[in-house]
Structure formats: structure tokens, C-alpha cells
Design a protein that fits this description.
9 helices; 314 residues; mainly alpha
């Protein structure tokens, strides 16, 4: 089964790479199609649909990897940094497949799929000993740990999609669409009505139809990720109480997880209460995901650098 696990992991990486290329070509064709060039736009749309199918196939391959890994290890496959990396990449593909339907935005795959691909390649680049199956240590042998890590992976996946939407918005806002001068464009499919979602245009870039779709993708990514992040922290506290006798111990990983939660809380507050739109929200999604990546990849390095101990293995 080990050979099949590795083959399926590389298959998932190859499918994600192919999907990314097709998303980029689709995005390029959609951006260059002029008013009467329906053939070019239609071709770009078909390529985008094919890219989504490849992403779905990649998700199936990675899900199979996790099943095989779990059968080999005899436990939920999230006991090592490598296993969580594969799970993180799987969660990004799942979040993208779901949120692109909910937000009605398919072009964001050009900015979200490479995140999953990068995570997968990072995991595959780990030295062989780090990718070996390991026994579950007693502290991790708890249903609360499994629920905690699974929920956090899903939250991180949703935040990755929001970050992809943020990159898309920032790039789209620099290239105004060619459209007649109108006071307002028709609402995006699935987008709520009201002044909060339809601000009066101040410049052509951030208020284009695609710009609002990218903002909707950001918003819904955070709307899904934030409650999952909250649930992940709560289940983590329960697991910590059972494993170490305290709900919160100011562990470095716990502090950075709290920072993630606070950044996205600011996003939600700024969006819903202060009425922020566009570029500030896009930058907040990028800041939040940068904190997510550092929490996952950098806290261990930081703990060693400053001489602190952490109870979290990854």
C-alpha cells in the first residue's frame, strides 16, 4: 500500500498542476475576449470547467491517499507534519470545489489551486524518515485531537480560498473591464442585495463585475473558515485539558492560532460593521493566510530560535 500511496500523491500533484495551467489559460482567454469574441470566451469557459474536473480528480486521489495512510498507520492520518500537510492540501481542494459553486466564481482557481499544489510538493520534498508512518503518541490518541486537527485543516482550506480571492481582486482591480458607463452593474449570482454589497463606484477597477465576484469569494471563504477556526480552537482546548490538564497554556502554537482568529475577526468586523470593501479586505485575507502559514510552518522554527518549548509536534 505504501507504493500506491506515493503514486496517488504524485498523481494528485500532477492533476493539480494540470488544473492550474488550464485555469491560467482560461483566465487569460476570458481577460482578452472583447465584446464580440464569444468563441474565445466560450473556449476559456470550457477550459475552466475542465480544470475544475481535474481538481475534483485530484481531491479524489488525495482523499484516497489519506484513507490508505490511515489503514497503514492504524489511526487517523494526522499524527505527523507530513500527514497534516497532505490533509491541508486536500482541504484546500475541497474548500475550493465547494466555495467556487457557492460564490459563482471559477476564475479564482488560478490563485487557489497553486496553494494546494505548493503544500503537496512541500510534503513530498520532506526527507523519507519524515514521511514514514509513526505510532500515535499517547497525548494524540484522543477523538478530540482527531476532531480538532480535522476542523483546523478545513478552516485553513477555506482561508486559502479567501486568500486566492484576495489575490484575484488585487490583480483584477488593476485591469478595468471594458463595459458601458453605467451606475451599477447587475448583481453577481448568489450575491446579497443592498448597499453593503453594491457600493457606488469610485473607480473602475475594484467595482467591476469580476472584482465583486472576487470579493464574494473572499467573504464566503472567511465566512466558512472563521466558525471552523473557532470550533477548532474550542475542541483543541478540550483535548489539551484531557491530555495535559489545562485548557490553555500560552504555548507558541496556541498564541499564533489566536492571532489567526483575531485577524479574521477584524475582517468580519470591518466588512459587516465598518462597511469595508475591496483592497483593504483583500489585504486582510492575505495577512490572515500569511499568519496561517507561519503558524503551520514557522512556529517550530521560532520556538527553537528563541529557546522555547512547545507541546505541539507540528
Amino acid at each position: 500500500m505504501e507504493v500506491w500511496e506515493l503514486r496517488l500523491t504524485w498523481l494528485g500533484a500532477g492533476l493539480l498542476l494540470a488544473a492550474w495551467v488550464l485555469y491560467l489559460v482560461s483566465l487569460r482567454r476570458a481577460g482578452t475576449a472583447k465584446g464580440g469574441e464569444e468563441t474565445v470566451a466560450s473556449s476559456g469557459h470550457r477550459l475552466g470547467e475542465l480544470a475544475t474536473r481535474l481538481t475534483l480528480a485530484a481531491f479524489a486521489a488525495l482523499a484516497a491517499v489519506l484513507v490508505i495512510r490511515g489503514l497503514r498507520a492504524g489511526h487517523w492520518p494526522m499524527a505527523t507534519a507530513y500527514e497534516f500537510t497532505v490533509c491541508f492540501a486536500t482541504a484546500v481542494t475541497l474548500a475550493w470545489l465547494g466555495l467556487q459553486v457557492w460564490a459563482g466564481e471559477g476564475e479564482g482557481g488560478a490563485f487557489t489551486v497553486p496553494i494546494a499544489l505548493g503544500l503537496l510538493l512541500y510534503g513530498l520534498s520532506m526527507p523519507p524518515p519524515a514521511r514514514q508512518v509513526r505510532l500515535m503518541v499517547p497525548a494524540l490518541n484522543s477523538i478530540w485531537f482527531q476532531v480538532h486537527v480535522t476542523i483546523l485543516a478545513l478552516a485553513y482550506g477555506a482561508f486559502a480560498v479567501a486568500a486566492g480571492g484576495g489575490v484575484m481582486y488585487l490583480l483584477r482591480s488593476q485591469v478595468p473591464e471594458e463595459s458601458p458607463a453605467v451606475e451599477r452593474e447587475p448583481p453577481v449570482a448568489g450575491e446579497p442585495s443592498g448597499e453593503l454589497w453594491h457600493p457606488k463606484p469610485s473607480n473602475p477597477g475594484p467595482h467591476t463585475h469580476r472584482g465583486r465576484r472576487a470579493e464574494l469569494l473572499m467573504w464566503r471563504g472567511v465566512a466558512v473558515g472563521f466558525p471552523l477556526m473557532t470550533a477548532g480552537m474550542l475542541t483543541g482546548a478540550i483535548w489539551a485539558q484531557l491530555a495535559w490538564g489545562r485548557y490553555w497554556g500560552w504555548d507558541l502554537k496556541e498564541i499564533w492560532a489566536l492571532l489567526i482568529w483575531l485577524v479574521y475577526l477584524v475582517f468580519l468586523h470591518a466588512r459587516a460593521v465598518r462597511g469595508w470593501h475591496g483592497r483593504p479586505l483583500a489585504l486582510l485575507t492575505l495577512l490572515g493566510f500569511a499568519v496561517v502559514l507561519f503558524t503551520f510552518l514557522g512556529t517550530g522554527w521560532l520556538a527553537r530560535k528563541v529557546g522555547l518549548e512547545s507541546l505541539h509536534a507540528f
